[in-house]
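Complex record, two chains
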Amino acid sequence: MRSPETAAPRHITTAPLLRKELREITSGRALWTMLLVLCPLVGYSFFQAAALYGEASASARDSPVLASGLSPLDGVLVPSFGALYLGVTLLFPFVAIRTLGHEKETGALRLLVQLPYRMASLIAAKLGAISVAWIIASLPALTVLAIWAALGGHLYAPETLNLLLGHLLYGLLVGSIGLFAAAVSDSAATAAIIALAFTIGSWILDFGLAGQPGLLDWFSRLSLTHTVRTFEQGLLSVSLLLGIAAAIIGFAALATVWLHPGQQLLTKLVGSLITVAVIAGALALSSQIRTSIDVAEDRRNSFPAADQRALAELHQPLIITVHLVPEDPRYVDLRRNVLSKLQRAVPDVTVRLAVGAQTMVGGTSDEAYGDVEYAYGASSARSRSTSHREVLPLIYGLAGKPLPPPIPGQDYPGYPLEASGALPLAWFFGALPLLVVVAWWWTRRAPRIPRYLSQEGGQL
Amino acid sequence: MAASPDIANSPHAQPASAVMRIAGLSKRYGEQRALADVSFDVRANEVLGLIGPNGAGKTTLLETAAGILPAEAGEVLWRDVPLPQAHRRNAIFYLPDRLRVWESQFVVSVVEFFASVYGRDPGRVGETIRLVGLSPVLRKRIGALSKGYGRRLMLTLALLTPQPVLFMDEPFDGFDLRQTREVMRVLRDVARHGRSLLVAIHQLVEAERVCDRFVLLADGRVRSIGTLDELRTRSKQPSGSLEDIFLALT
């Protein structure tokens, strides 16, 4: 078809659009209010975490064994960033919704969709602005890192960056959900309800369904909190990374489908179905990827280095048949201490659950209930242990391999620190909020008028 | 502000060939019919008035034709070639009524945004600002503008767009008499310089002064189309005002 050539600008850049979105998100109250709320929230979390860590460190002063259990990741960073997680879950949806919901309510969207940008570019610019908003919102949590280092605390870069990545992805996921909610709703209030249904609904999935058998367990895994939890455990999972990326792109794509008010409802529904199908396929594919990197300094997600090397040389299939129901605490222990680590260390390992679900009285008719059967090549053996110290020798025995000698110097030393978080409280409760208010005021200054616009005139 | 030339007696542009045709446009809101088989042409360099009482379907017509609202039936043709909904923004820019957008932004920021999106040179932007008289409020937030200045800002944005056809919904709302005459002069200038305007107006006196032709719309149907003289002949009111003609034909 012949389209009017005169109107479509030849060179469209997204820079003006991105600048406009950044101005929009920083000129609203939502982001700055969230930041002001986060300052004391993160500050108090850090204060409490540092105090508890200090007490534990004092107890471990003369005990290297106790000291080896002191990880700043678990003791300080995760609790402090927990406040950021809380803020992102409850407040960030409002920041994200504002980027689109306000334009829908005021009618600005009707101007925006007439600009020579693709709908995907409009949503991408908004998601870009949301990313910047997350960085601004995470400033209190980021200052925790600087303060902890200044107090003499230890930071291990890979696990710290991994934690930051997890929170960034979670923020973007919540942001894209907010965008989607704003795109499908007529009002910001409805969008907020939809977005909070996702975020707070995740908590319900977590608390209500986790550990339940069958389909309920599958539902509980849809919880958004899984996004952060794996990163908090010092694990960089390629599967999770791709899965979250697919979910973010999916919600952004759905927002794109629903953005234009001139599209027929049927077109939007068909577009949504196709998007959901593609994203579901991407999620299914990503879930098949087993690659993950243990970035925790204490290697909590791996066996000792000598065992890791020895297990990597087991080239035949290792088949593990577990006679436990998924909700059995022994299975939870076995999964955490042995199975998940084996799945990362052994090239070819299959885990089967021999018992589907618990009986009505809580027991099971399986006489072998509680056994775990390990089969490697033609050999097999049973054990009821959930500790790698008993399971690994058994597997080595099946493979006809000797126990690997431990590699010296691999033990995690722990990083005790008796530091007080009281002084930094002044930063989080005083200086930082003041800086936020100043930054807020700075963003609200009237811009300079270019010379070519400053000459007086006018006819009306 | 200088008095405007007598727009009513100014020689309006002669009807030229149609650049755009709206053909059989229909739209319903649930059970309520908003537009029924609406068809008319928009000619080059003309100001075409869309005339009708409140609820006649003027806004719905502008929005469906611009592709902002989905239509049940009908199409828009650009020089006799169908213009799909996704491509209409290349031909049409639609300025809705009563817009107060991006209220937390400064006037200058929004003007510069539109200017950079469409690659307008500073001279053109400055000229438009001066033409519309927006200079005194450039450093103000949009939310703090008076109704009149809010309308001027929207008019500025519309004038910065390059589309050959400009749809405007009630462009004189919010302006006093003197300002209305100036807006009329600006719109006539815009048409003279190559754009076609489809303007929804419910004030018939203003419409009579600014428009070359009229589409009379009532209950979602086109009742008549033509110049004022053609409509007078059709309504058999040789000296009738647009108001008389509208009442006679609808």
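Note: The mean pLDDT of chain B is 89.
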